[in-house]
């Protein structure tokens, strides 16, 4: 039997996802027509003999309940559970803290998945390789551009044995162009290994405390750290690699991080394209009396789209959206209750809940071509080259053009804006 843990973080995380995470937790933000975390769950539902999925986070218990109830109906063979950390315990702390619940039923393999990623999730291939090599854990890696490798956890891999020889978190100098994807599978013995890592961490913590009481607290250490906080990357994976207990599995499908709000747009496109390749029936198609649809498009059944509108490719339109005549939408996410009036255009953008775009209005960002473009939000204090984002309840007046900007919630936009963050 196999199990999986998905780390969902907490409300103080995902700050880069603002203004969209002000309305709902990042893991529940929709990409490809479904919450980000649904894609992890769907992929896990296809893993052989996977019986339970546990979400670990620091959000209030009720937040994920309706979503997990829906998952329970959609995937009845899998048990779902949400476990709340008493404080943010880091990427391995909560996993270790809840070990008794995780090992209940004696699972042979335990997947761990991060939420802030989108991926083709070849989990059965990952599991087969993990079982074949029989090491304590397997990390899924992907090839990234050499020039951006320093942004990731980098893994040096022996091609023949698939042994992960070194793990370095965000290395200052070049180490490898194979980056951790935030997808792992461990054998049950991982908890014994983590117990040792935690002891080491507690020792370090106490030494630090002793130094502080002797010499006073440094200015940087204002944040009170929990002694049980354990980081998967620095405290566990690095040591596993050093002890030759970690394998690496190469992900050949797609993978992107979903860190900033803008990165939801390429993630949306990747999942919609995958759905198109899989011939999924939930995708919209051009009909005799409907709008023109190009490429991969998701339209919620309650949305009303005027037949003269042109939608796609790579567009998700959510519940109760009303799109007027002559509207053009391309490479964008339009969230619930948005109204887009006649002849408006929405290109490379995210339009937040309850927004209104007036007649001939234009909300336009730049197409993101490389994963590294996304976080390049400002240059000399000016926003450049990014997805255009309207927070919740933004009103764009008739004929107003909002370009490459981020607009915080509840604003009325009566004049054109280019390359600005509107607070
Ligand atoms: P970088 O941007 O890579 O510096 O890190 P980050 O803080 O944005 O992400 P991190 O690598 O810390 O998080 C990876 C995943 O773990 C995300 O899905 C987070 O939501 C989740 N996560 C991070 N810290 C915690 C934690 O303390 N508890 C839980 N339950 N999840 C966490």
UniProtKB/TrEMBL annotation:
Domain Mannose-1-phosphate guanyltransferase C-terminal: residue ranges: 293-422
Database matches in Gene3D superfamilies: Hexapeptide repeat proteins (2.160.10.10), Spore Coat Polysaccharide Biosynthesis Protein SpsA, Chain A (3.90.550.10)
Single GO MF annotation: mannose-1-phosphate guanylyltransferase (GTP) activity
Catalytic activity of the protein: alpha-D-mannose 1-phosphate + GTP + H(+) = GDP-alpha-D-mannose + diphosphate
CDD domains: M1P_guanylylT_A_like_N (cd06428)
Pathway(s) the chain acts in: Nucleotide-sugar biosynthesis; GDP-alpha-D-mannose biosynthesis; GDP-alpha-D-mannose from alpha-D-mannose 1-phosphate (GTP route): step 1/1
Enzyme Commission designation: 2.7.7.13
Domain Nucleotidyl transferase: 3-200
PANTHER family according to UniProt: SUGAR-1-PHOSPHATE GUANYL TRANSFERASE (PTHR22572)
Family classification: Belongs to the transferase hexapeptide repeat family.
Name of the protein: mannose-1-phosphate guanylyltransferase
Gene source species: Coemansia spiralis
């Amino acid at each position: 039997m196999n199990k999986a843990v998905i780390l969902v973080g907490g409300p103080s995380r995902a700050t880069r996802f603002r203004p969209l995470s002000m309305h709902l937790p990042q893991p529940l933000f929709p990409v490809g027509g479904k919450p980000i975390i649904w894609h992890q769950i769907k992929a896990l539902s296809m893993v052989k003999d996977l019986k339970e999925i546990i979400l670990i986070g620091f959000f209030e218990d009720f937040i994920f309940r309706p979503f997990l109830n829906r998952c329970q109906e959609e995937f009845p063979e899998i048990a779902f559970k949400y476990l709340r950390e008493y404080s943010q315990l880091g990427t391995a702390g909560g996993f270790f803290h809840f070990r008794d619940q995780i090992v209940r039923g004696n699972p042979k393999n335990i997947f761990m998945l991060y939420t802030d990623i989108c991926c083709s999730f070849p989990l059965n291939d990952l599991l087969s390789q993990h079982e074949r090599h029989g090491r304590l854990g397997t990390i899924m890696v992907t090839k990234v551009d050499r020039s951006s490798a320093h942004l990731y956890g980098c893994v040096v891999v022996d091609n023949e044995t698939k042994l992960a020889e070194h793990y370095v978190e965000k290395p200052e100098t070049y180490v490898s162009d194979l980056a951790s994807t935030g997808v792992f599978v461990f054998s049950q013995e991982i908890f014994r290994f983590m117990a040792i890592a935690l002891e080491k961490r507690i020792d370090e913590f106490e030494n630090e405390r002793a130094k502080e009481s002797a010499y006073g607290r440094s200015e940087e250490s204002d944040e009170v750290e929990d002694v049980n906080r354990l980081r998967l990357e620095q405290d566990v994976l690095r040591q596993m690699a050093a002890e030759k207990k970690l394998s690496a599995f190469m992900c050949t499908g797609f993978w992107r991080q979903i860190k900033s709000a803008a990165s939801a747009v390429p993630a949306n496109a990747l999942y919609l394209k995958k759905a198109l390749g899989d011939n999924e029936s939930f995708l919209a198609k051009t009909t005799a009396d409907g709008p023109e649809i190009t490429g991969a498009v998701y339209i919620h059944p309650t949305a009303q789209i005027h037949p003269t509108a042109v939608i796609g490719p790579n567009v998700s339109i959510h519940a109760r959206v009303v799109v007027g005549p002559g509207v053009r939408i391309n490479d964008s996410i339009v969230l619930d209750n948005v109204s887009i009036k006649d002849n408006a255009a929405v290109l490379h953008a995210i339009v937040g809940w309850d927004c209104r775009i007036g007649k001939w209005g234009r909300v336009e960002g730049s197409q993101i071509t490389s994963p590294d473009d996304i976080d390049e939000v400002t240059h000399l204090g000016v926003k450049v080259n990014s997805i255009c984002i309207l927070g919740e309840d933004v009103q764009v007046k008739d004929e107003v053009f909002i370009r490459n900007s981020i607009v915080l919630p509840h604003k009325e936009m009566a004049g054109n804006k280019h390359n600005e963050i509107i607070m």
